[in-house]
TrEMBL record:
GO molecular function: transition metal ion binding
This protein's name: Ferrous iron transport protein A
Pfam families noted in UniProt: FeoA
Source organism of the structure: Allopontixanthobacter sediminis
Keyword line: Iron
Domain Ferrous iron transporter FeoA-like: 1-78
Entry-linked InterPro entries: Fe-transptr_FeoA-like (IPR007167), FeoA_core_dom (IPR038157), Transcriptional_repressor_C (IPR008988)
Amino acid sequence: MKLEALQNGIPARIRSVDWSAIAPEEGKRLRALGIDEGAEIQISHRGIFGGKDPIALMIGRMTIAIRRVHAAAMMVDPL
C-alpha cells in the first residue's frame, strides 16, 4: 500500500520508494533523515487543510514532516 493510505498510528516498513517521482534535492534530504527502503515508520498525524498536507512521520524517535506527494511515492508494509 502507499504510505499516504496508511492510517495514523499504524507502524509500517518502507518496501520501496519511487525516487524518480521526487525531486533530487528532496530525495537527498529524505535519505539523510533515514527515509529509505527498510525503514520502520509511523504516521503520527496529518495536516488539517484540504490535501491533508503535511504528514508528520515518525522514524525512530524523530518526527519529520513530509509532503503528501512524497508519501504517494512510497510503498509500505504494515507491521
